[in-house]
Structure formats: C-alpha cells, structure tokens
Design a protein that fits this description.
The chain is α+β, with helices and mostly antiparallel strands. It contains eight helices and 14 strands.
Length: 400
Amino acid sequence: MTSFTIASFNVKNLIGPDQEYYAFQSYTPEEYAWKSDWMADQLLTLDADIVGFQEIFDETPLREIIAETDRRGIDANAASVPDRSKRYHRKAIFRKLAYTPYTDAELAFAPNVNDSDTPGKRRPGLAILSRHGFAEPVEIIQELPQPLEIPMACLGGEDDAGYYTLRRLSRPVMKARIPVGDQIVSVFNCHLKSKLGEFITPQDAPYAPESALTAYDASGRALGALRAALRRMAEAWVLRRAVLEELQQNRPVMVLGDFNDGEYAVSSEIISGETPFRNYSWMLRHDARHSGDRYSSEEDHKIRETIDRLRLRAAERMFLKKSLRDVVYTTAFGGVHESIDQIYMSRHFDPEWRGSIGEMQYFSVFNDHLTDGSHPEAPYNKLASDHGQIMAHMRLNSAE
C-alpha cells in the first residue's frame, strides 16, 4: 500500500514586505514576519505530500517559507523522534509524529498573465509543491489559444441570442502529472473568479460608477455580479474540458483549489459533472415518437456508466458519508460559514467502484484560525488567511 496526502492552501495574498499588491494594501516588515511565521506553522501542521497553493504573487517568499517549515520540522524531529539506539524507535506513533522535509520536493509556480509590476494593480498566481516531483513539465492554462465563444440559446422568435466570449482566465489553472507509487495522478490546481462584482470603468473615468457606494447603484452592482458569475462558470468549463481530456484516457484525476462557490453551485457541478440518475428506463428518449418511447435497460446501463466514468467525487461529501461530522467550512463571513475550497477526485479513488486504485481514508479541515468577518478579531485574517486549509489522506492499492 502507498499512502499520500494532498492539500489545498489559499494563503491570502503572499507577497514580500513593503510591496503594494492591491491599492493601498501592503505588509509592513512586522506584518510580513507574522504572516510568514503563521504560514510556516500551518504548512508544518499539514505536512502534506502535495500542496496546491492559491494567491501567490511571488515565488521567492513561498520558497523561503517552505525552507523555514523544513527548519522547524527537522528541529521537531530531533526533539520528539527517537533515534535507532532507542529500543522503542519503531513504534507507529513516532512514524506519525515525524516530519518529512521538502528537501527533494519540486515546486512549480504559475504567475498570473494579468499581473504587472504596477504597485496596487498586482494579480496573484498559483503554485504546486510535490514531494513526489512531477512526471512531466507542469501545464499552465490561462491564455486560451482560441477564444471560448458560448452561444446563447434562442427563445421564441429570436434570430440571434448572442455570445459570451472568454479569451483568458482571471487566474491560471495548473495541471501536474504526479507519480505516486506505481500510479501517475493528474492533479489540477485552480482559483476561479471570485463573486466580487466586475464593473467597467468608462474611458477617461477614474473609477467605475458602481464602485461609488455613496451613489449606490443596486442595478449596476447586480450586473457586475452577473459578469463575475458568467466568468466563473466559463472558467469552470475550461477546467472541465481539461479534466475530461484526462478522464477520457482513464487517468486518475484530482482537482483542488478555491472554487469560490459551494459544492452544489452550478460552477462546481460543471467541474464535477452530472450525477447519474438511478434509472433512465423511465425517461422519454431524446428522439421519442410517442409517450411510451423510453430508453431500454441496456441503454440505461450504458448512460449511467458513461456519466459515472466522467464525473468527479467531492472529498468532503465522501468523508461526511462515512463520518458523524456534520459541519465542514473553509470560509466565514457575515455569519455565513461555507466550503468554497474543494478537493474532487475521479472514481479511481472511489472504493465503491470495482476498478478503483485506492481510496480516501480521512479528510482534514484546518480552520481554527478563521474568524467571522463581523467578529472584532477579523483583522487577524489579513495576516493569516481567510480560508481554511483542507487535506485528503489517500491510500493506493498495491500493484497486483
């Protein structure tokens, strides 16, 4: 058996001190020291074999934090893990306590093509850290070779319902082929467009009218939310297309990151795919000629198999099905606690599928640092993260 852990970590705006990443937002040296210290402790606690990071502005601070994590982990090992001279050094508890340094790990960073060196107008990228290295160069998806044109369906007498066009993603999607045991797992790391409204600044205007809260434009702000949702769902489809390319080749797939939507949102369901009905034999055929023209039993089996083969499972839901835990959340704001960070996996890791290569043994959520946005201690989130970290504990079957 081969075991590994895979985690998603939205660090919230990692950049060095005295660098203005968004307008009038930067870290003092003391704030950066606090944030990097917290991140090193959090990464040490995770001790994950594969980590997908979001909101990374620069690679250098991340490498420094990983190095600091290793220093702390090695010191902890020296203090708490007995050497071979102790007769009890083989106890399982010490294997669990031991930290594995990232000395031989590989780190891939995907800068955001929308980023610039202009202070206050930076845009974050992503990164993947892997103790197992990479089987091939990491692929970055952001600039689309061909614009994605989504035709809108005509209603009634419409001749042309128009298009929604997407030429680039708001943030990159990373695809890494990672060797684990005798398998190679296709891992996607993403950070989809947020729910923050997209407002258009008129030419020669200093700002978008909808951003002026003293002249509150409810209709305009709702339109901005619509633009953001359209972009997020279109980005979800681009990710889904890349996932399908792997699944069509029967490759094990895991998708992690900040989806900026809950598990049951349309954008998340675009990524995961449809959940098949239990029975399609009762359903009218797509080419039905009369009311009794239904799918056959053979077609029912084929439909369900095709859908199931191409859908992803949510690690959170798989964990809750076999545990007594009833609350999992990765964000808290205004009294709303929800999960917008997810780990999805193909049926290769579903023990209920007879062809599975492994399974998830446990699902961890690291959210003790979160404070509600309306809580007096909410500014703490600026230096830590406004996201909880999630980690799936996986086990692969032995090769036959």
